[in-house]
Amino acid sequence: MNMPAVVVTGLGMITPAGNDTETTWNGVCSGISPARTVPELEACEIDFACTVSGIDLDEAVGGRTAYRMGKYVKFAVLAAREAVADAGLDPAEWDGSRVAVVVGTSSGGSAGLTEQAVALDRRGPEATSPSGILLTIPNMPAAEIAIRMRATGPSLAPCTACSSGVTALSVARDLLVTGQCDIAIAGATESIVFPVAMTGFARSGAAARRDGDPARLCRPFAADRAGLVMGEGAALMVLERADDARMRGAVPRALLAGAGATTDAHHPTSPHPSGAVARAAVEAALRDAGWRAEEVEHVNAHGTSTPLGDATEAALIGQVYPHRPPVTAPKGVLGHCMGAAGAIEAGLTILTLQHGVVPPIANLDAPAPEFDIACVTKAPLLQPVRRAVSHSFGFGGHNAVIALQRP
C-alpha cells in the first residue's frame, strides 16, 4: 500500500543564534558561536552556555497566561506561532479537531521543579506557586500550543532524550499517514541552562570545561574536542499530507521522506562503540525513503563534540556514506539544545535543501585525522542539495534519523 507523502509547510525557531528562523539560519551560517558566561551559573563548575537572548519572553508570548509557563513552554509557543504563520494557516479558520500537536522535550520543566523545591525548602509551602505543577510537567508545551491554536486533535509529548525532536516529527508523520489528523504542529523544546542541570552534566564528564573563550569550546569532530556546551531553544514545524497542501496552494519547504529509530540497549550515556545499532537507524530511514545511501547529498550530524560520541558517529558516516557527502554539525554554534536539538537540526537541514548552502562546523579547521568524513569548515559550502539526512542520538541509546528531500 502506498502511504501518502508528508511535507513540511511551516517552520519556526527560537535558538541561541536568533529568535526566529531567518536569524537562526544566518547565525548558524556565520559559524560563530554565541556561547557566553551566564551570571546565574556563577557558582557552578561550568558557568557558560549558549542561551536565547534579546527577547522578553513574556511580552513576546503575550496575554495574561505567561505566568503559568516555564521558559521551555514559552519557547515552544513562539516557535509554533512562527511555523503556523509560515505555513499560511490561521487557527481561527481551521477545523481544530483535525489538528494534532506533538512536542518533544528531554528535561521538560526541571528548572521550574528545582525552583519550587528550593522555595519549599527555604520558606515553606506558602512560598511555592499555585502554578508549580504547570511549570514542571513535560506535556505543557503541547498543551499550551493546543490551547492557543484551538487544536483538539491528538496532543502528545514524546521523550527520547536528545532525539526527542526527531521522534516528535516521526510520530506526527504517522498521525497524518494514518488519517488521525490533517495538520500536525510538531517539533521540540528545551530549557536546561540552570545550576542543577549544568552541575549534573559537569559531574558526568560530558561537558566541556572552561579553557579560554566559551565560544571556542564546542568543536565537533576536532582532534582536540573536549565535550559539549549546553544550549536551549525550540523548533516547531507544520506537517501536512502533500495532496492537502497542494489543494490549498501551499508551497512545501521539504518532503519528510523517511524516518528510522533504534535503541542501543548498551549503556545509559555512552553509545555502543560499534555504532551498529545507530547505523541501523540510518539504514531504516533510507529504506523508508526509498533511497540508496549514495543518493544522500548532505549529512547533518549529531556532532556533540564529545570524544566517544563523535568518534562513533564519524565511523558510522564513513561506513554508510562512502561517497563522502558534506557534513555539518550545528552544535558548534548553537551548543547542545538537548531535547530540542533534533528538531532544530532537522529545520536547518530543510533550510540547506532550500538555499543550497551547507553551514560550516564552528571552531573546526579540519576533522581529526582518523575521521574520513567531509566536514564543512570555515565558510558555508554553496552546493545544491536534493536529499539530506539528519542524525539524532540521545542518552539511553535512543537513535532517531530523518530523511528530508527538496520538493
Summarize the model shown:
By secondary structure, this protein is an alpha/beta fold. Helix content is 32%, strand content 19%.
The CA-CA distance between the termini, in Å, is 22 Å
Q: Structural class of the secondary structure composition?
A: alpha/beta
Low-confidence stretches: none
Question: Helix and strand string, N-terminal first?
Answer: EHEEHHEHHEHEHEHEHEHEHHEEEEE
Strand content: 15-25%
Radius of gyration: 20 Å
Spatial strand order of the main sheet = 5-4-6-7-1-8-15-14-9-10-12
Assign a percent range to the helix content: 25-40%
Mean pLDDT: 95
Major beta sheet, specifics?
Answer: 11 strands, mixed
Q: Write down how many β-strands occur, each being a DSSP E stretch of 2 or more residues.
A: 15
Shape: globular
Question: How many helices?
Answer: 12
Report on the structure:
The protein is an alpha/beta fold. Helix content is 32%, strand content 19%. The chain has twelve helices and 15 strands. Strand 9, helix 10 and strand 10 form a beta-alpha-beta unit. Helix 9 crosses helix 10.
What are the key terms here?
globular; 32% helix; 12 helices; 19% strand; two-stranded antiparallel ribbon; alpha/beta; 407 residues; 11-stranded mixed sheet
How are the secondary structure elements laid out?
Elements: E1 6-14, H1 21-30, E2 36-37, E3 48-49, H2 57-61, H3 71-86, E4 99-104, H4 110-123, H5 140-149, E5 155-156, H6 164-177, E6 183-190, H7 195-204, E7 233-241, H8 242-247, E8 254-263, H9 276-289, E9 298-300, H10 307-320, E10 326-328, H11 331-334, H12 341-355, E11 357-358, E12 374-375, E13 381-382, E14 387-394, E15 398-405
Parallel strand pairs: 4-5, 4-6, 9-10, 9-14, 10-12
Antiparallel strand pairs: 1-7, 1-8, 2-3, 6-7, 8-15, 11-13, 14-15
Helix pairs in contact: 3-5, 6-12, 9-10
